[in-house]
Amino acid sequence: MNATRLHITPPPTRIGLALGGGSARGWAHIGVIRALQNAGIEPDIVCGTSIGALVGAAYVGGELDRLETWVRSLRLQTVVSFLDFSLNGGLIKGDKLIEFFRNHFVDHDIRELARPFGAVATDLRRGREVWLREGGVSDAVRASIALPGLFTPVQRDGSWLVDGGLVNPVPVSLCRAMGADVVIAVDLNADLLGRHLKPKPAKAKPTCASPETETLADTVMARIQTGMSQLGINHDDGPKFPAMLDVLASSINIMQVLITRSRLAGEPPDVMVTPQLADLGLMEFHRASVAIDAGRRAVEAVIPLLQARLNGSNDS
């Protein structure tokens, strides 16, 4: 008597994409997604922290083409126009930026998106991780990008929420919890330690500032000094603002790098993508082309490993 074999087709592998935080370096996520698409890889689940939440939401919401066109067109003065100066919880309110996205990009409810999406924020009072998987996309993104000291916190359900990078800079764990079998993680901060404190060659001070010679730090400094002057605060005799910005940026880098290493040691992804972005400053959103190209190159370097992991998962 011949035994009848029952063939059970295994369910398809669910691919998760965990997009990490990193402020302006986050435009690299666009290059990452483009390179994955070119390789025929479409993630089933997308999670993001901070700027990763913003790009991930645009991707899942079908707005990536429009987002890429817009960020590639950004210039220094455009970035400066989004700086709504505040001394109440952060230097930048963030209202102008989020209002721009609400007016120019479709603001879906997270549960209505084409594929599962989640964003990570931090409960400021309790210090715990918050997973945002329902409600308006722009509200979730605004909470996830609220970098302490720069963007003001967001109130949600009685809690003050700030940047998810404080607790989970690369949200591999959220991808796993949402059902991903294979997780591709993008770490934007792998090569940043000490970047802002390296000696820099002296530059001749221009006789007059112009959009071509003025840096973002110069512009932000002028805005903040104007606000401080209105409050009767004068820092002319103290350290110059670029040094303060370097300290802030380096402190954020140290925090995110060490937290990322700790979280990924306990929750390793299947494939890690690490764009080389040390030359991009914290607020240099107008240098999108540099970041996007770095993201694309980083994915192309790991495509053989990624395909091997996917083939292995399908064979099991």
Question: What does the secondary structure layout of this molecule look like, with pairings?
Answer:
Blueprint: E1 15-19, H1 28-38, E2 45-49, H2 51-60, H3 64-73, H4 76-81, E3 90-92, H5 95-104, E4 117-123, E5 129-132, H6 137-144, E6 149-151, E7 154-156, E8 159-163, H7 172-177, E9 182-186, H8 216-230, H9 241-266, E10 271-273, H10 288-315
Parallel strand pairs: 1-2, 1-9, 2-4, 3-6, 9-10
Antiparallel strand pairs: 4-5, 4-8, 7-8
Helix pairs in contact: 1-10, 2-6
The rounded Rg comes to 21 Å
Oligomer: single chain
What is the makeup of the main sheet? 8 strands, mixed
Number of helices: 10
Determine the strand fraction and express it as a percent band: 5-15%
How many angstroms separate the termini? Answer: 30 Å
Helix fraction, binned, reads 40-55%
Calculate the mean pLDDT score and round it.
80
What's the count of strands?
A: 10
User: Helix and strand succession?
Assistant: EHEHHHEHEEHEEEHEHHEH
* Poorly predicted regions: 200-207, 209-213, 228-235
Helix and strand content put the structural class at: alpha/beta
Structural shape: globular
Structure commentary:
This protein has 316 residues and is α/β, with parallel strands linked by helices. Helix content is 41%, strand content 14%. The strands form two sheets. Strands 1, 2, 4, 5, 7, 8, 9 and 10 form an eight-stranded mixed sheet that branches. β4 and β5 form a beta hairpin. α1 crosses α10 and α2 runs antiparallel to α6. It is globular.
